[in-house]
Amino acid sequence: xxxxxxxxxxxxxxxxxxYWDAQYKTKTTGWDLGQISPPIKxxxxxxxxxxxxxxxxxxxxxxxxxxxxxxxxxxxxxxDIAPTLVDxxxxxxxxxxxxxxxxxxxxxxxxxxDLIIEQTFFCALPPTMRQKYVWKMHQxxxxxxxxxxxxxxxxxxxxxxxxxxxxxxxxxxxxxxYLTSMEICTNSIAPRANAELxxxxxxxxxxxxNLYELEGITCSGCMDSITKLISDSSxxxxxxMNTSFSELLIVSExxxxxxDLQQVISYDQKYKINKxxx
Length: 278
Prior knowledge:
The chain is an alpha/beta fold. It is 27% helix and 26% strand.
């Protein structure tokens, strides 16, 4: 994405299907490189198994997918929420049995993948959805599966794109994934030089990853208290609450009874917690 001008949206406008479809209808796609990102190309060139199941969420114009099928990969799936874009992709890849193009919500998608390529999907989501992103990625990947791609290592005044830092990402993915790599890219395109982290995150199959809906939490002080109490519970490896205090990600050694979690936060009667089912 262009750092100075992209598809900057007011936070009052929902980043929903209508929003993203409008970007493609009006060709307001400042994030589009017009080519595969060099760090991702280099990674793809290192892959040996061309039958591995690959997903690209929020796929955009799918330069990565095009490169994959041109290199002989046979099991590529792309998904995006924008109908205009997906219609174009279905035309572009018509008759190609090695790629599946899906119009849909990534968070409702079902499947099992060896590799999920991250290229400007994470940064396009509202930051309140980051815990949900980790949860869904863990679900979709096979036990040895990986997320590979790029995350911004900078903060934007508004978005999308929404940025972040390595420290934030490490805390977010901790224990749900093994952080095989998370370093500044040395081969980014010029406008993104020193602003991208190349990530290779391997699923931790020994961890249970669950997402919960919260009620009654209204401030960062409450958030800190609740996350500390749950973190101290037996078997809990990592706890992360989203920025709107509405969802809680828990990474644990074993399944934790919902009643036990409710008891932990019941020091205030207005606090409620409910598990979000896959």
